[in-house]
Description:
Blueprint: E1 2-4, E2 11-12, H1 25-30, E3 33-34, E4 41-50, H2 54-63, E5 67-74, H3 82-96, E6 100-103, H4 106-115, E7 120-123
Parallel strand pairs: 1-4, 1-6, 4-5, 6-7
Antiparallel strand pairs: 2-3
Amino acid sequence: MIGSDLDGVIAANSLNPKDYRPYRLHEFFAKCSPTGYAERFWRYIITGRKECYRKVTERWLHEHDVDYGQLIMFPNKVPKNYRNLAVYKADKINDLGVDVYYEDDLRIVEFLREHCLEAEIIFV
């Protein structure tokens, strides 16, 4: 089974997310462009986007014809930082039995390679 991160792999945005306050992140996420990876089938998309952005994310995936099985989003109540995100993704990859996972953040790639021994982690 193949999985991927969303932002930086399937979706790209040249805008700086730090310029967007949380209430405007919906707008930032909606302005993403699909990458070449958007044309593949993804059994799992495991993203660091918080659950509260599910509607805008699903709408974007639908509008750009991204074919996927399940969208797994970061919980709203968990503080989002590198460590929490890396642990969350590792747990999901291991629990779901993901064989190959694409990630664009090198720090997370290194963490996943150490903690997801059954999966091939590909740095994009």
